[in-house]
Design a protein that fits this description.
Layout: E1 2-7, H1 10-20, E2 27-32, E3 42-43, H2 51-61, E4 65-68, H3 71-76, H4 78-84, E5 89-90, H5 94-101, H6 103-113, E6 120-123, H7 126-134, E7 140-144, E8 153-156, H8 159-171, E9 182-186, E10 191-200, E11 204-212, E12 215-217, E13 221-224, E14 229-232, H9 239-259, E15 265-275, E16 278-285, H10 293-296, H11 304-312, E17 327-335, E18 360-364, E19 367-370, E20 373-376, E21 380-388, H12 391-402, E22 410-411, H13 418-424
Parallel strand pairs: 1-2, 1-4, 2-3, 4-5
Antiparallel strand pairs: 6-9, 7-8, 7-9, 10-11, 10-15, 11-14, 12-13, 14-17, 15-16, 17-21, 17-22, 18-21, 19-20
Bound molecules: glycine.
The site of glycine has 7 residues, from loops.
Length: 425
């Protein structure tokens, strides 16, 4: 079987690794891929937004299955383009990917179908938003309606900060048209958990849980990033909470999308806040998380191709989804200065140390193959994942493995998984 993966980050590397474990797969392509993905896949120089070129390529090569990793092509309708050409593809259609592509759509969906989330209001003009802020409670959360590389969420502690935020999103257009509409919502407190779920349009199966660390600096300080590290499972996401989520959030979301004529097939990423009043939805994404995939997929026992095909064929209920009874931690090695200004092109050494090391993985996020070897090519450079019998052991192993690679400007948070100790105390 020939598989094409669309994307170029650490998440797509984790997907490529997982696909490479399948006995059913003979050949993997990745468009555009990166320096690490090329270990398993032939990287193709087509960007994730060149829909017709991607479909032409899939037809020319006789690709049996395409897996789309990234949000932009999903929200833009790449699945629809592939399906129109009769190509087999995994991911939500454009009319379902809107669950990530429009925050106001997803909030309205939750309100209409009684899915637990916090109070919100939607604004199409800065004037109306500023009037609302006059009598709001703080902190408060501003969200650009559209995709903004995970950076369109502003937590504002005062009215002044929120007014500035409205200026950034709606007037300065820092995230372009993504900020034409803004959702203003109450600030929720509690533990954040990411749960990625396989979906076939009717059935939904949650994977093992994970927790991300979004801020750039230790102690959850600094700017929001794409994610600086993850651990799985979350000790706070108990079986009891999972049951509540299944009854009140996961299946109701699938049913709501179906009722709206937007059957969701693909990965539904449910960002949860475990509040004192029970689990509530922070946000939905329409794809694997990054770097959540880097701790969840290495723990999955199933052949990913079997699960993905069951989703496409509407037979997910026949899959016995299983995860290892262990833990994994991923520490992201970034270029110092990320997410603002940073240098690229630094030679990376030590990658060979991961060869044949059971339970250790180096997932490339921003790297490039050059004549001098593999060099840095982005803000997030590598995701170092290690497994262990429990979270403490996995974290110790992951931090040890971060020392096996070096490059100028290497930066990481030193407190990934701090919450593990808070749970123990
Ligand atoms: N790690 C958060 C995301 O993938 O959106």
């Amino acid at each position: 079987m020939k598989v094409l993966i669309v994307g170029s980050g650490g998440r797509e590397h984790a997907i490529a690794w997982s696909v490479a474990q399948s006995k059913r797969v003979d050949k993997i392509y990745c468009a555009p891929g990166n320096g690490g993905i090329s270990q398993y896949a032939e990287c193709v120089d087509i960007s994730a937004m060149e829909f017709d070129k991607l479909a032409d390529f899939a037809q020319e090569k006789g690709i049996d299955l395409t897996i789309i990793g990234m949000d932009d092509p999903l929200v833009g309708g790449l699945v629809d383009v592939f399906e129109a050409r009769g190509l087999r593809v995994f991911g939500p259609r454009k009319n379902a990917a809107i669950i990530e592509g429009s925050k106001s759509f997803s909030k309205d969906l939750m309100k209409k179908y009684g899915i637990p989330t916090c109070h919100y209001e939607t604004f199409h003009s800065p004037e109306e938003a500023l009037i609302y802020l006059e009598n709001a409670s703080y902190p408060i959360v501003l969200k650009a309606d559209g995709l903004a590389l995970g950076k369109g969420v502003l937590i504002c502690n005062t009215q002044r900060e929120a007014e500035k935020g409205i200026g950034t999103l709606m007037l300065d257009k820092q995230f372009g048209s993504a900020g034409d509409t803004v959702v203003i919502e109450d600030f929720m407190t509690g533990r954040e958990v990411s749960v990625l779920c396989y979906c076939d349009g009717t059935h939904i199966k949650p994977m093992t849980s994970a927790q991300d660390h979004k801020r750039a600096k230790d102690g959850d300080q600094g700017l929001n990033t794409g994610g600086m590290g993850t651990f799985s499972p979350s000790p706070f996401y108990t079986e009891e909470i999972q049951k509540i989520c299944e009854e009140q959030i996961y299946q109701p979301t699938m049913d709501a999308m179906k009722a709206e004529g937007r059957d969701f097939v693909g990965i539904l990423f449910v960002g949860l806040m475990l509040t004192e009043d029970g689990p509530k939805v922070l946000e939905y994404n329409a794809r694997f998380g990054d770097p959540e995939a880097q701790v969840v997929l290495p723990r999955m026992k199933n052949d990913i191709i079997d699960v993905v095909e069951a989703c496409i064929d509407g037979k997910l209920d026949q899959v016995d989804l299983q995860f290892e009874d262990n833990a994994a931690v991923c520490v992201v090695l970034a270029s110092d200065g990320y997410p603002e200004k940073y240098e690229k092109g630094k030679k990376i050494s030590g990658l060979k140390n991961f060869q044949d090391k059971e339970g250790y993985y180096v997932f490339h996020a921003g790297t490039k193959c050059t004549e001098e070897g593999i060099v840095t090519n982005g803000g997030r450079v590598l995701g170092i994942t290690a497994k262990g019998k429990d979270l403490q052991e996995a974290r110790k192993n992951a931090y040890e493995a971060t020392e096996w690679v070096s490059f100028d400007n290497k930066y990481m948070r030193s407190d990934i998984g701090k919450a593990i100790d808070e749970n123990a105390s």
